[in-house]
Write a structure and sequence with these properties.
With 502 residues, this protein is α/β, with parallel strands linked by helices. Helices cover 49% and strands 16% of the residues. α18 links the parallel β16 and β17. The longest helix is centred in the C-terminal third of the chain and has 27 residues. One of its GO terms (molecular function) is ATP binding.
Length: 502
């Protein structure tokens, strides 16, 4: 009933919007800004250039949306990511005009329509088949091995930072039926989960097959955000893991900054990883999202809690104390994953304090950072340096840390030696290095940068980190964080009041 009412509201909203289309084109909305969590323009502050540039595409997109309809029991209904995108535009939540995003939405709508049509063949509904039938299929597959590839191909979205890949995937995921076996997870978190499962099944003849079976039983549709392979252990696992997953009927939807052929470029033993790329291209439609707009940088990018300079220890500690309020920060120890514990130099009231050396110059990884963000909503980091060849490993850890903070919508208070762009100026890709001007006699050896780090993975990842650091310290992001904390604290207060009343 709830879904039916939602569909009626969406249809009524779209029809009302089309009826008022002429009037709305005459009376321009006054305010537009950015939905930083979704990667799209929203209604808050007027920009005549944006409105004007969006008009040529505006009418054509309206006509395209009109074709998105299905007929159920003789009644025309509408559903899918394109319809939701249309609804948000109609409600003024998003600004129309990004042809790159709309083109990608067509691919997502194609996938959505195919999944709806072939849901039974794909075994998407978790209530449609019994456990007995599942056990029967498992036994039959052991007696008569056969391919059970899904009849629907997945989708691999790739492109530059801030182009809205995550927003589009989430928009698609949110439109899928709640009863489906589906999962949306960050790639770092997914791989941590895989390693944890492998550890659990240690001693089994083929633990990877067992893990693939568990994952496919839970999620036939798997949505992975920020697909990025930098670790040789992950690279070697992915080939066999996804061969098993695809063979079990899993459908993959992924976002990445890298094209399939560029994944794990220059990595150790990459020849063993290449079969995975071939399998990925076979089972997924690759779609590039191009855009001249980095939506994250359209926020009111104020300095926020990002302070530039050296010897700012007293300043960051003062701000940290303000964030924890009247609580007294003390050393703590928190559990991360698989029984591991991490020492926190200072922690109080959901806030943790670290020096850069404590968090990024030690052998820590995504698992540790995810554990921190589950225990603390704010991380204070003192002394982020300029990155180069001498601290390349620490740069990798910092990139991962920022990814995890952003994924968990946590807050970052930090001091750094330069702006986000300046931190990564010495990190370049091979292509960038080839186009750099050679040394001339007018350039002294003293001015030459011997600390230049030529690294493809880090060179591509730095743009995402710069973009996310910019957004994390924007007014909009910090306001969203404050609202999130208020919502979490309110239920806790209600529980305390109820306990006192009892």
């Amino acid at each position: 009933m709830r879904k039916a009412l939602q569909s009626v509201r969406q249809i009524r909203s779209v029809l009302r919007y089309r009826k008022d289309n002429v009037l709305s084109s005459l009376v321009r909305r006054q305010y537009f800004s950015t939905d930083i969590s979704r990667g799209c323009l929203c209604k808050l502050s007027y920009n005549g250039g944006i409105t004007r540039n969006s008009q040529p595409y505006y009418m054509s997109s309206r006509a395209m949306f009109a074709d998105v309809a299905t007929v159920t029991n003789g009644v025309e209904t509408r559903g899918g990511p394109l319809v939701e995108y249309e609804r948000r535009i109609a409600e003024g939540e998003l600004l129309d005009g990004d042809a790159c995003q709309v083109g990608t939405l067509q691919e997502l709508q194609r996938l959505y329509d195919q999944l709806i049509e072939k849901a039974e063949d794909c075994r998407l509904d978790k209530y449609a088949s019994s456990d007995k039938a599942g056990r029967s299929r498992w036994l039959w597959s052991r007696l008569m091995p056969q391919s059970t590839y899904a009849p629907v191909k997945g989708l691999y979205l790739y492109g530059g930072v801030g182009t809205g890949k995550t927003m589009l995937m989430d928009l698609f995921f949110d439109q899928l039926p709640a009863s489906w076996r589906k999962k949306r997870i960050h790639f770092h978190d997914f791989m941590l989960n895989v390693h944890s499962r492998l550890q659990k099944h240690k001693g089994v003849a083929d633990p990877l097959e067992v893990v693939a079976g568990e994952i496919s039983d839970e999620s036939i549709l798997l949505c992975l955000d920020e697909f990025m392979v930098t670790d040789v252990a992950d690279a070697l696992i992915l080939n066999r893991l996804f061969r098993q997953l695809f063979n079990n009927g899993v459908i993959l939807v992924a976002t990445s900054n890298r094209a399939p052929d560029n994944l794990y470029e220059g990595g150790l033993q990459r020849d063993l990883f290449l079969p995975f790329i071939a399998t990925l291209k076979e089972r997924c439609v690759a779609r590039e999202i191009g855009s001249a707009v980095d939506y994250r940088k359209l926020t009111s990018a104020e300095q926020g809690f990002y302070f530039i300079g050296k010897d700012l220890s007293s300043l960051i500690k003062k701000h940290f104390q303000m964030l924890v309020g009247g609580a007294q920060p003390v050393p703590q120890e928190v559990e991360v994953v698989m029984g591991r514990k991490l020492k926190v130099p200072l922690g109080a009231n959901g806030c943790a304090y670290f020096s850069f050396e404590d968090l990024c110059d030690r052998p820590l990884g995504a698992a540790d950072y995810f554990g921190l963000c589950k225990n603390f909503h704010t991380l204070a980091l003192e002394g982020v340096p300029i990155f180069g060849l001498h601290n390349k490993t620490a740069a990798y850890r910092f990139v991962t840390l920022v990814d995890v903070i952003y994924e968990n919508r946590a807050r970052l208070l930090c001091t750094a030696e330069g702006t986000p762009v300046e931190l990564f100026e010495r990190i370049v890709t091979i292509s960038d290095a080839q186009h750099m001007a050679p040394r001339t006699s007018s350039r002294s050896r003293k001015n030459d940068d011997f600390d230049l780090c030529v690294d493809n993975e880090l060179g591509f990842a730095k743009d995402r980190t710069i973009s996310r650091l910019t957004e994390i310290n924007s007014k909009e992001y910090l306001e969203q964080h404050a609202e999130m904390l208020a919502k979490k604290q309110l239920p806790a207060e209600n529980r305390a009041e109820n306990a006192m009343g009892a």
